[in-house]
């Protein structure tokens, strides 16, 4: 099973590009908080993230450095050969779902103007459940 769920802040603005076939792809890094490593000192882990298509466009256009995002997806192991001929290996999270928790505008202030993300990954089947139908 390969499931990843993270909440973190973008460490830089997302980088939106397009493939030769016209698919949108965005790359960015998030920092997630860890428990204190020593009394009074904060620590963080950093993760590479990638999103495709409508999600890529939405993320690139609606969240900037410092914005907080919840992501769900899977990890992939990737590699490339650098100019010295060395194989560089890295992991990244392929985003399958996300929720922008807060936005950072160009001045670094938080904004609560939340755009609609309901159709980024296609329609989800929703059912109508009444409270009296719930077993708890």
Automatic annotation (TrEMBL):
It comes from the Bacteria. One of its GO terms (molecular function) is DNA binding. Homotetramer. Plays an important role in DNA replication, recombination and repair. Binds to ssDNA and to an array of partner proteins to recruit them to their sites of action during DNA metabolism. It comes from Candidatus Vagococcus giribetii. The gene is ssb. Keywords: DNA damage, DNA recombination, DNA repair, DNA replication, DNA-binding. This is Single-stranded DNA-binding protein. A motif (Important for interaction with partner proteins) lies at residues 131-136.
